[in-house]
Amino acid sequence: MRDLFRRAGIDTPELDARLLAEIAFGMDRLELVNREREIAEPEALAKLQGFATRRLRGEPVVRIIGEKEFWGLSFTLNEATLVPRPETEMLVRRGLEILEGRSHKRILDLGSGTGCIPIAILRASPSATAVAVDLSSEAIVAAQWNAERHDVAKRFDARHGSWFDPLQVGESFDLITSNPPYIERAAIDSLPPEVKDHDPRLALDGGRDGLDAYRIIVGEAFHWLKPGGALVVEIGSMQGAAVRSMFLKAGFAEIVLEKDLAGLDRVVVGHHL
Ligand SMILES: C[S@@+](CC[C@H](N)C(=O)[O-])C[C@H]1O[C@@H](n2cnc3c(N)ncnc32)[C@H](O)[C@@H]1O
């Protein structure tokens, strides 16, 4: 299979073949090597054949496997969820710092997808509780399942709706996080096929200039934060100045623009003093 993948120009043919074989045969890497010479069950072979066909058609391995690791935890994906990206772990790290020393630790995550951000925070902060909102009801199902998988379901409240709509008057939060859709609509078709053909449009499309979600989120978050709380958002690398000025206009203080490991603007943090 790896030769087939190599000939098809797949970047990591060996790794992809191994990961798909592990799932198809239900074995880990070591077991696969040790049992290499055994005759495989026809069902497992058929499964592997199906996986290979999907990979050769351009579907990313994580989509075929239906799992992605984030913050050291495995998250189940479905068709409505974005594949969590490593740079999004910056929101978790920063969020945990903000929550440190606070007594109630109530989090709101907007556009939750798999639930990766709040679930990672809940795992690392046992006294915290989280509300996770997504416009996709299928994403909400995935987030709820992931919360159960990671044993935080009792502290995790997944709500279906648009941004702040599912909240009730009087609710307030110590931390609001969001990795909203931020790709300019016209740029979506130029994204790599594994993104534009497999990540859901609702998770990518940030409107004409990519900033639609920030106009609502940054504009309204201040109202839902407790004094001393903070808003942490992920941004596209060219959106730092525009989003920073939205934070200023909304009344946030101590605004910080953080870069990712590639040196690109990636996160904006603002405090409600
Ligand atoms: C870029 S994805 C981020 C998913 C996840 N937080 C992560 O970091 O992997 C954006 C998410 O926002 C959701 N979304 C889009 N529009 C929304 C809206 N109006 N209200 C709530 N969620 C929305 C999408 O369904 C998607 O799950």
Helices, by number, come to: 12
What percent of residues are in strands?
15-25%
The CATH class of the largest domain turns out to be: Alpha Beta
The CATH H-level homologous superfamily of the largest domain: Vaccinia Virus protein VP39
Q: What is the N-to-C succession of helices and strands?
A: HHHHHEEHEHEHEEHHHEHEE
Q: How are strands sequenced across the largest beta sheet?
A: 5-4-3-6-7-9-8
Count up the domains: 2
Which molecules are bound in this entry?
A: S-adenosylmethionine
Distance between the termini: 57 Å
Molecular shape: globular
- Tell me how many strands there are: 9
CATH architectural designation of the largest domain: 3-Layer(aba) Sandwich
What structural class is derived from the secondary structure elements?
alpha/beta
What percentage of residues falls in helices of 4 or more residues? Answer: 40-55%
Radius of gyration: 20 Å
Assembly state: single chain
Give start-end ranges of low-pLDDT stretches.
none
